[in-house]
């Protein structure tokens, strides 16, 4: 039975990537898009009295910086946001806040004008905290507060008043910290449950495959052996030809159990015909093909065996799938008397053939 290939879901489990809050989902992306629209509407409405093109350019630039920072946080996958990315993203949020605040002049200032950039910075800091970098987020928030205070001082409202515009950022970060503390054990439970689900699915698949194989073997056994057993029970006297056919049937059934790797309709037919011609055929399977995901390799091996069986007229043919971990996958030995040919199939698909002649000893009369 071929091993199940590793899918992308398994790789996610190996990396323990459990997105508890669904930050990479389309729902979150749509929510951020709605916030961007609200940001724009509030900024335009609150800044209706702003006439400076330079000030508007700064507000637009701040919005773009926030958009890039948010996009990076949302699209970066992994169990935790990398520090190498968290620091630049947090710095971008602080820069976006600074650019937006310094684009507001004292002549047209309204307190509502600070709400969009401070809210955007708070969202970025919260996302960074939720993604496992709370220290970086808190440092960024403190830097934003200091810069907001310096801005307030520069336009004459005072450091405390300017810094106070960022006050609502901290309750949100506190809630984010609580979510992170609750989510850590939850993420571990989800990861364990997913691992158990995958393991159970693999077990169920293996059980189903084994049951299907067992059913197939029983079906073939019943189809081929039951008529013979019925004749034996009825006391039928077998002729020489019928005995030969029974022995061929018994050997074929044994092949299916002892050498499943060689199991195919062309191989069965070729082995049957070779044995009827008097060729001794031995099929063995020690499991190397169970760890080989290449189906073409299995087909090529069977084709080579079929060609050899059709060409040989007597002697012995031994086809063996070797144990796993060797440089060779399988070998086919054709012994036709004085000549012995050995065909070896490597793991890289290379076929090599060796021929040896056994000297025939003669004795004087």
* SSE succession: HHHHHHHHHHEHEEEE
Q: Name the helicity range.
A: 55-70%
Number of strands: 5
Strand residues, percent: 5-15%
Distance between the termini: 57 Å
Structural domains: how many: 2
- Give me the secondary-structure category: alpha+beta
The dominant shape is: rod-shaped
How are the strands ordered across the major sheet?
Answer: 1-2-3-4-5
What is the typical, i.e. mean, pLDDT?
A: 81
Describe the structure.
The chain is built from eleven helices and five strands. It folds into two domains: 8-195, no CATH class; 239-357, no CATH class. The chain has a five-stranded mixed sheet, with helices on one face. The longest helix has 65 residues, at 169-233. By secondary structure, it is α+β, with helices and mostly antiparallel strands.
List keywords for this structure.
365 residues, alpha+beta, five-stranded mixed β-sheet, 11 helices, 5 strands, disordered N terminus
Brief summary:
The protein has 365 residues and is α+β, with helices and mostly antiparallel strands. It has helices spanning 8-14, 26-46, 53-75, 83-102, 115-130, 134-154, 159-164, 169-233, 240-258, 265-276, 295-311; strands at 280-285, 316-321, 328-335, 339-346, 351-357. A 5-stranded mixed sheet has the order 1-2-3-4-5, covered by helices on one side.
């Amino acid at each position: 039975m071929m091993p199940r290939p590793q899918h992308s879901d398994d790789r996610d489990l190996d990396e323990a990537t459990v997105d508890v809050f669904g930050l990479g989902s389309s729902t979150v992306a749509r929510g951020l898009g709605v916030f961007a629209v609200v940001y724009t509407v509030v900024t335009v409405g609150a800044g209706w009295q702003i006439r400076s093109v330079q000030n508007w350019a700064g507000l637009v630039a701040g919005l773009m910086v926030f958009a890039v920072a948010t996009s990076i946080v949302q699209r970066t996958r992994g169990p935790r946001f990398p520090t190498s990315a968290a620091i630049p993203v947090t710095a971008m949020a602080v820069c976006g806040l600074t650019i937006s605040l310094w684009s507001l002049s004292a002549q047209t200032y309204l307190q509502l004008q600070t709400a969009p950039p401070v809210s955007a910075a708070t969202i970025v800091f919260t996302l960074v905290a939720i993604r496992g970098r709370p220290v970086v987020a808190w440092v960024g928030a403190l830097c934003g507060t200091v810069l907001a205070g310096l801005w307030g001082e520069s336009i004459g409202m005072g450091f405390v008043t300017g810094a106070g515009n960022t006050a609502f950022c901290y309750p949100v970060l506190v809630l984010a910290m609580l979510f992170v503390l609750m989510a850590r054990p939850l993420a571990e439970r989800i990861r364990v449950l997913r691992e158990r689900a995958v393991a159970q699915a693999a077990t169920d698949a293996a059980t189903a495959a084994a049951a299907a194989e067992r059913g197939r073997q029983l079906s073939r056994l019943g189809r081929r052996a039951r008529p013979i057993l019925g004749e034996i029970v009825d006391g039928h006297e077998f002729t020489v030809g019928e005995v030969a056919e029974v022995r061929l049937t018994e050997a074929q059934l044994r092949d299916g159990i002892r050498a499943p790797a060689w199991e195919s309709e062309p191989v069965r037919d070729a082995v049957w015909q070779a044995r009827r011609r008097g060729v001794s055929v031995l099929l063995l399977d020690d499991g190397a093909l169970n760890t080989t995901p290449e189906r073409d390799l299995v087909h090529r091996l069977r084709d080579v065996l079929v060609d050899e069986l059709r060409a040989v007229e007597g002697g012995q043919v031994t086809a063996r799938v070797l144990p796993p971990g060797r440089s060779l996958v399988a070998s086919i030995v054709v012994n036709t008397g004085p000549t012995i040919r050995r065909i070896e199939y490597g793991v890289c698909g290379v076929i090599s053939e060796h021929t040896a002649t056994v000297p025939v000893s003669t004795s004087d009369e």
